[in-house]
Amino acid sequence: MAAKGLKVIFIIINILLLMFGATLIGLGAWVIVDQDGLVQLAKVGHEGTYENFSKPGILDVMSGIAVVEGSLTVLLTILGFCGLGKKSKCYLALYSGILIALILLQIALIALAGVLKDRVNQNLRKALKEVIKTEYEGFVESESKFSRSLDIAQVMFECCGLDSYLEFNSTAMKWTDRTSNQIPKTCCKLDKDAYLEEEQYIFVNRNCARLPTPDISNIGKACYNDIETWIINRIVVTLALTVAFTTFQILGTIFAFCLLHAFRKKSLV
């Protein structure tokens, strides 16, 4: 009875590991693929700057690790089920060894998530302000990934500027409309779905960018808090999943060793 109980618990843990592995693959792949979305605003490098958008930021590195670990975990659960089905001590020993290695990788991912969270808290506002000066262009066809991402954030969160709508005219040197408009077009009240899905401007009032007022624009709300919250939330979700994942990996290792011990005693039916 005890041996059968071990089997059942081992199967449940492996199913949960399979689900967590698939979730990690999905989350990591989404960040890697979504390079034109808000992910660009989280490209804080090892020094807390946006010096090179062609290089991966810490969030990109975390996502790559998550995809690799999720994929290995999916393969590992298959190995675990094979070991259980064949009652193979070799398979279960290999399963346990790889799982221990993955636990160490998970600990590294948790530490990396903590580093990124601290870096966002300490450096994000300053880094964003600096990169607006050199990267923000303010039109939907811009080749700057950062510029497109900031526009998406302004539409999504219905806000304007990091701390004030006035900062565009005073700091955004590459903003193409800075001589004719007071605010970027994405600071205007517009059809969010049309912009986010089809990159079309459908304004409440077409004079908004030139003569903005609170009724037809989002000049009354700054963007920084929403951007920071969006980034932090994704880090926290990754961190929580990783901690839960590591817990089940540890349980999987323990029960794999228990099964190995049971096999050696030839107590399984």
TrEMBL record:
Localization (cell): Membrane
Keyword Transport tagged: no
InterPro entries registered for this protein in UniProt: Tetraspanin/Peripherin, Tetraspanin_animals, Tetraspanin_EC2_sf
Topology of this chain in the membrane: Multi-pass membrane protein
A Gene Ontology cellular-component term: membrane
Residue ranges crossing the lipid bilayer per the database entry: 9-33, 61-84, 91-116, 235-263
Top-level taxon in the UniProt lineage: Eukaryota
Main location: membrane
Keyword tags: Membrane, Transmembrane, Transmembrane helix
PANTHER family to which the protein is assigned, alphabetical: LD03691P, TETRASPANIN
Similarity comment: family membership: Belongs to the tetraspanin (TM4SF) family.
The protein's name: Tetraspanin
Species per Swiss-Prot/TrEMBL record: Biomphalaria glabrata (Bloodfluke planorb)
Gene symbol of the encoding locus: LOC106069047
